[in-house]
Design a protein that fits this description.
The protein has 11 helices and 2 strands, in the order αββαααααααααα. It has 198 residues and is mostly helical. It has a single domain (3-191), classed as Hypothetical protein af1432. Strands 1-2 form a two-stranded antiparallel sheet. A hairpin with a 6-residue loop joins strand 1 (24-28) and strand 2. The relative contact order is 0.14. The model has no long low-confidence stretch (mean pLDDT 94).
Length: 198
């Protein structure tokens, strides 16, 4: 494949992933009364990992974590954002996201598409120290947003304390420090009536 062909494929990919800015999540931005989009979420995740990297359970390659985080939600262009607490949506999540990954990463030149798809697969597997920390940061930032917005996303969707703890306990695999903070946030939200117990 020529350099010109590579460039055309790369540009097509970059234009396609701009759609991530149109995918709304259930969480709200902290300083405005609107839901965040997936591109904003990805940026905030990268910054969160950069700032909180000292709290990982294991030594990590931070560059690899940042690369995983900036690409892991790209599949939402096709698959949409599956809300963590939507058990029905989770039934088809893996199939939808695999299909989206095949198409979207397939837009790139083969070697680049394979590399980026590999990072996405690694994030999903949570089998490396980097993917476990990336996962922890991904889950943590949504909880922090809910803390700062007085549980707006949680309250609108009827989320309970037990659900938050159950669906986010994997944070501990990447960062005990962040998991301890989550438990504190959730306990405080329950005390304040933001999160019902069950």
């Amino acid at each position: 494949m020529s350099q010109t062909d590579n460039l055309e494929r790369q540009l097509a990919f970059l234009v396609e992933i701009d759609k991530l800015k149109t995918i709304l999540r259930r969480n709200y931005v902290v300083h405005a009364d609107r839901r965040e989009n997936s591109a904003e979420h990805s940026w905030h995740l990268v910054m969160t990992a950069l700032i909180l990297a000292e709290h990982t359970n294991e030594p990590i390659d931070l560059d690899r974590v940042l690369r995983m985080l900036v690409i892991h939600d790209i599949i939402e262009v096709d698959a949409g954002d599956t809300f963590l607490y939507d058990t029905a949506g989770y039934e088809s999540k893996v199939a939808r996201e695999q299909q989206a990954a095949d198409r979207i990463f397939g837009l790139l030149p083969a070697d680049q598409g394979k590399e980026i798809r590999g990072l996405w697969d690694e994030f999903e597997s949570r089998e490396t120290a980097e993917s476990r920390f990336a996962y922890a940061v991904d889950r943590f930032i949504s909880i922090l947003h809910n803390k700062e917005t007085r549980g707006k996303g949680w309250r609108e969707n009827g989320v309970t304390k037990s659900q938050v703890l159950k669906f986010n306990k994997g944070i501990a695999d990447g960062s005990i420090v962040l998991w301890d903070r989550v438990q504190h946030i959730v306990d405080q939200a329950a005390k304040e009536g933001i999160l019902p117990e069950t």
